[in-house]
């Protein structure tokens, strides 16, 4: 187990690796530094969690229900603030972020959830455009941007459908298109495959991998064992609010670990 | 953010909200109309009552200073000049004995008695007077005390005359009418505010998913708030227009001689309508502001 406890390095460094070409190490885009979160009932949701995520990383946060995965996501979008420690996103300590600057942070992030959060009375195109209309209503080429986002998720032919006319997987793709419209540097997904059948779920993970390939940092909380094991990406394993494992190209369970 | 498309968007969303939640919007429109109707009616009644009382007050604010028969006209003019320069005196007019007799004859029905008295050599027993019209009913007794010591005054137990009983009674009525009107308008306003707040809170609850998404994708609190504020203003202004139409309609139905019912002038009615519209807009926006606050906090 290797858990990084060091805070973000101040600037980009280049590190030589043997005889090969130098590997570029950008400063972390996300830093969790001894973060604890306790809710009103006194139960700690996360306890002394530390890790860093570098730009363009793809990270799975895994664990059973109540392990603290969703709290990690909520802390990252500052829906919650840490009771202890520091959550730093793009060099900004979220505890010090003023409430009026929160929208600016959220616009840098794409966020999707298990329940899609689509507006049922709007069409697919309107749902995607909504993210721009409520943040920058005067932005030009809205139609082109919506079309481009829907093309990336493979729904360019469903512009005028309503969410109820789509499958679960398609609805999640619309949510992803909406999250992509601001071209976020960080993409957060909280159990995006939770309501989907295995095939649709795998399709969503492939889409997130593609988004990561285009340059976005992706953090995905999930308890979907198959997609984690198939993807072979970095895994942060949570248990009882604590980070118990941080593994590059990890698996849902460590060898010999029992299913919780 | 470009303000024109932003405004266009929030107005469109506000109108969509009203159409989408038309049941709640209609209920709140109806209740706010009724409350504004109450407020408008209260203002009209208080104003009419105030007008009647002020007319009474004007009449009661007259102090008659009776002059002794032997006093020269120059002395009377001198006293009239001195009294008219008092700040509380609006007008000081001289009424000679003949005018006093004529006034008594027409006002008190004493024409025959005076004629008989003059024919039998009794002459005109009524004194000349300086009639003081005071700016404020409260100043009557002070001026009376000041003037009643003058040696030019009519000798006898009553050298001056004013309606002592009416003045404090009128003052009490005017105060009660103004206080009652203010309390009624305040109560009705508070009721309207609560109704709009509940209505917007309900609308915000219905739209909670939309608000949640707006916040997640990075909309500012003000951007979330604006459609609700505009919705509140629309409901408030529409309610005010409806209430005004009903009030003016009733006023025209029972009015006469270029005035509305209760003798209310068209100019005042226009001011009441403008007041209701402004009040409706303020009530609507403030109620919405309070109503949406909780949704933004969670």
Notes on the protein architecture:
Chain A is of the alpha/beta class and 260 residues long. Chain A has a domain at 56-79 and 100-247: P-loop containing nucleotide triphosphate hydrolases (Rossmann fold). Chain A has helices spanning 69-76, 102-107, 124-133, 142-152, 168-180, 198-213, 225-231; strands spanning 13-15, 23-25, 30-38, 44-53, 58-62, 84-89, 92-93, 109-113, 186-190, 217-222, 234-239, 242-247. In chain A, the strands form 3 sheets. Chain A has a 6-stranded mixed β-sheet, with helices on both faces. A 4-stranded antiparallel β-sheet of chain A has the order 4-3-6-7, covered by helices on one side. In chain A, strands 1-2 form a two-stranded antiparallel ribbon. In chain A, α3 crosses α4. The two termini of chain A are 19 Å apart. The model of chain A is unreliable at 1-22 (pLDDT under 50). Chain B has 298 residues and is α+β, with helices and mostly antiparallel strands. Chain B folds into 2 domains: 3-56 and 169-297, no CATH class; 62-135, Alpha-Beta Plaits (2-Layer Sandwich). Chain B has helices at 3-20, 22-60, 73-84, 97-108, 111-119, 140-147, 166-206, 208-216, 221-254, 266-297; strands spanning 62-66, 89-95, 129-134, 160-161. Chain B has a 4-stranded antiparallel β-sheet with strand order 2-3-1-4. In chain B, α2 packs antiparallel against α7 (166-206) and α7 (166-206) packs across α9. Classes of the chains: A alpha/beta (260), B alpha+beta (298). The A-B interface holds A 77, 99-100, 103-107, 111, 117, 119, 121, 130-131, 133-138, 178-179, 182 and B 1-2, 4-6, 8-9, 20, 209-210, 212-221, 223-224.
